[in-house]
Each structure stands twice: as C-alpha cells, then as structure tokens.
Amino acid sequence: MKKIYFIVPYPHGEAPSQRFRFEQYYTALAAHGFDFHISAFLDHDTWHILYKPGHTIAKVQGILKGFWRRCMDLLHIVSYDFVFIHREAAPIGPPVFEWIITKILGKKIIYDFDDAIWLSNTSAHNKIAARLKWHSKVSAICKWAWKVSCGNDYLAHYARSYNTQVVVNPTTIDTEHLHNRVKDQHTDRIVIGWTGTHSTAQYLDHIIPILARLEQQYDFTFMVISNRKLKADLRSLQYQHWHKESEIADLLQFNIGLMPLTDDPWARGKCGFKALQYMSLGIPALVSPVGVNTRIVDDHVNGMICSTDADWERAITTYLSDADQRIRAGAAARRKIEAEYSVASNTPNFIRLFS
Questions:
Q1: How far is CA 67 from CA 43, 47, 127, 137, 183, in A?
Q2: Residue 164: burial class (beta carbons within 10 Å; 0-12, 13-18, 19+)
Q3: pLDDT surpassing 60 at residue 335
Q4: Which of 45, 182, 204, 270 is 20 to 30 A from 157 (CA-CA)?
C-alpha cells in the first residue's frame, strides 16, 4: 500500500482551496489502495481567529505551534512514499521544510497550487503578513518537486519554467454529493448573485454602477454571500453571511451568477471557482475574459463573457428578462461541469499524480 503525507496550510474542511482541490479525493485515494495522513499548519482555534482583529498573542502562539508541528512532520514523513504539499509547508519564511523533505529525506513531492502565489498580492487586508512571505520559494519548490499540480494553464506555464513534470489539475466540483441540485429558474423574483471573501469584493467596483442603472428599470435582488458586508449604495443589495453548512442552499437562491475580474497577473492565476460553483448548480455565469474563465464559460451557451460595461449590462438584462434563456444556459452549464470540471471526471487525472 502506497502512503501519502499531505502537508497543508489549513484545517480539514475549512478552506475552499483544499476542499475543492484534494480533500474531496480522499475516498477515491482509499479506493485505489492509498493510505494517507493530513497535517495542517494551523489548528482550528488559530484558523478561526486568523483574520479577526486582535488576538495577537493567540495568533503568534498558533503560528509557533504550526512550526513545531512541521518539525514533527519531518520525523513521520520518513515512512511515506509521497509528500503532497499544497501551496507551502509554512506560511512565512524560506522553504526550509521543503528542502529537507527533498534533499535530506529524498521524498517525492507533489507540489500543488491554485493561485499565482509567486506574486506579491498585497492589500490592506494582508500587508503585514505579506512582509513575512517568501514569494521566491515557489520557483525553488517547483524545481525540487517530483511533480507539480497546477489549477490552470497559466499556472502550469509558470511551473514548466522550472519542472517538466507539470500536470494541470483543475479545481473541481463534487456534482454527486455536494453540488448535486439544479436551480429552479421559475422564481417570482430574480436574484443576481456574487460570492467571495471581503478581499475579492474589490472586483465588484465596476459592476455596482451597472446594477444601479438597472435598478431603475428592473425589480431584482443583488445578493452578496461573503464573510463581510459589502458597502454599496444599492437598494437591491442583500447580504448573506457565508456558512459552509448552508452554502449550497444559499447559492441556489441565485438565478444569475457574477464573476468580474480585473485583468492582471494575479487574476489570471485564478481557477474560476465562482463560475464553477454557479454552473454546477444550473446557474448561468457572467464572467470577465480573464484567465481560465474563457475556457470554463462558453459565450452565449452556458453563460456570457463580458469585456465591457455594455457587455455586462446587456448580459444581465438578457438573463433578467428571459427565463427560457436562463434555463437553457443553466442546463448547458451543468453539463459542462459534469463533463470537464467534476470530481468524477477528474479522478483519473488526480490519481495519476501518484504514479
């Protein structure tokens, strides 16, 4: 029986990048004869206060515990065949643990990432932590890795500069056990929706004026599902706090899903997760033509690709006023996800990372 040691940043079941990139494959790994262990850098207590103001001493203690946990990992990894590292072994500092695992212990690393993490994506929300990051370590870990698992072609292009064994392993949706319902588009009120964290809400800035204009002509709700309220002067705005337990039911309130992005190197590295979630539930996705979005969404088939403000206004208006188009696009969206971005369709690709 082959053994895999998962080195991950966050506790099990908490972070979308982990839930939708590899945690949902644990059952398949067991079915294929793999034994595995998961070691998170952060414990649950630290995770739940990490992005809250204050708690400085508790945060520092949690980080120190994480480093101690990584030191203990080095002892346990010896008996494992593969080490799967998602993003990084430690959130700050150089890749010391990765170097020891590959150069001293001689283990096969599968290095996985789903963002352009070699870039410094500093904002008001993470500027302090960004100073402690070691972004250049991404290239080093790519060089040392046995295989590199990337969420899209843009990330894979970067990784191939350092490693020939690069696999495009897309973020996927479990259409059988989680995203296993389809939106009923015959609703009394149309809901235009967006979901994401407060750190990505900036992408809505140029959509807000468009929605403000459409409010003058149409009666709809603009629902934002997030971890923090959106500040916008819209009478249609409705805030829904994100909860993992109700995320599918909350998303199913949407008739139309939005994923605007700014075209920059960081956004090009994104893996289209919002669009994947919408489409898996039979909700047409309106997206910016940035990165993988143009591969996920087929324009005027399962959603629309919007380059200009006029495109956004026209697309939203079309789906606002025509339930039949929403139904056709939603059905095509569901089929696309099942065929190309589902756990079932991608399981062979994921399993091959360890062969």
A1: 11, 15, 21, 17, 44
A2: exposed
A3: yes
A4: 204
Is residue 299 within 8 A of residue 329, CB to CB? The reply is no
Domain architecture of the chain: domains with CATH? 2-169 (3.40.50.2000), 190-340 (3.40.50.2000)
Q: What is the reported pTM?
A: 0.93
For residue 225 the two structure tokens come to: 């599902």
The closest alpha carbon to 170, from 146, 154, 194, 193, belongs to: 154
Question: How far apart are the C-alpha atoms of 160 and 144, rounded to whole Å?
Answer: 12
How far CA 136 is from CA of 117, 126, 147, 276, 349, in Å, comes to: 9, 18, 18, 30, 28
Q: What is the largest CA-CA distance in the chain?
A: 66
Tokens (6 digits) for 11: 């506790």
In what side-by-side order are the strands of the sheet with 285-287?
237-241, 220-226, 190-195, 256-259, 285-287, 303-305
Structure tokens at 275: 């669009």
Helix (H, G, I), strand (E, B) or coil at 24: helix
Tokens 């262990």 locate to 37
Residue 8, number of CB atoms within 10 A of its CB: 24
Query: Is 173 in contact with 20 (CB distance < 8 Å)?
Result: yes
Residue type present at position 129: A
Residue with tokens 């929300």: 125
Separation in Å, CA 215 to CA 201, 286, 315: 20, 18, 15
Q: What is the pLDDT of residues 202-223, one digit of tens each?
A: 999 999 999 999 999 999 999 9
